[in-house]
Write a structure and sequence with these properties.
Elements (H helix, E strand, L loop, with lengths): L3 H39 L13 H33 L3 H12 L4 H13 L2 H8 L20
Helix pairs in contact: 1-2, 1-4, 2-3, 3-4
Length: 150
């Protein structure tokens, strides 16, 4: 019994959930970085003993925070793209990239990534992902017209 379509649908749902969780974490990190940035702008740059905070420290913290938020948004976009692509059987490399990124998120992401590798390494699944890229013979008849009312 072939359960490929069912497995891809379950994977897609799990990827949507994982993308939502990752997006929520990115929003929390962004709020935290904004809070720290606001606090740093209000703090005096000199201490009670006359020592000063170097001018590059607030910029460094803002840059690290922006990089973290940017990577989180990129990861979220990759996970949403994989969730959208799985039931349509498109973008095999994107889905594999999402599986690798999921393996870094212990424990649910690791299980989801391993299950993705197991499902996508089936020979029939690989072939179905790449069916759209096979050239159409020149003698193929034109596709049928859609029924009226579409």
């Amino acid at each position: 019994m072939d359960t490929t379509q069912h497995d891809l649908k379950i994977l897609s749902i799990c990827y949507y959930i994982m993308a939502g969780i990752t997006g929520a974490y990115v929003l929390i990190i962004g709020a935290y970085v904004s809070l720290v940035g606001a606090m740093l702008t209000k703090l005096p740059m000199t201490g009670t003993r006359g020592q000063t905070i170097p001018d590059f420290v607030p910029s460094l913290i803002a840059g690290i925070g922006a990089a973290m938020v940017g990577l989180g948004l990129l990861t979220t976009a990759i996970l949403f793209g994989a969730a959208w692509s799985l039931p349509k059987r498109r973008n095999y490399p994107l889905v594999m990239t999402a599986a690798v990124l999921n393996c870094l998120q212990v424990p649910f992401g690791t299980a989801l990534g391993v299950f993705t590798f197991v499902v996508l390494n089936r020979q029939g699944v690989k072939e179905s992902f790449y069916m759209a890229f096979r050239p159409v013979p020149a003698t193929a008849p034109p596709p049928p017209l859609p029924p009226p009312g579409w």
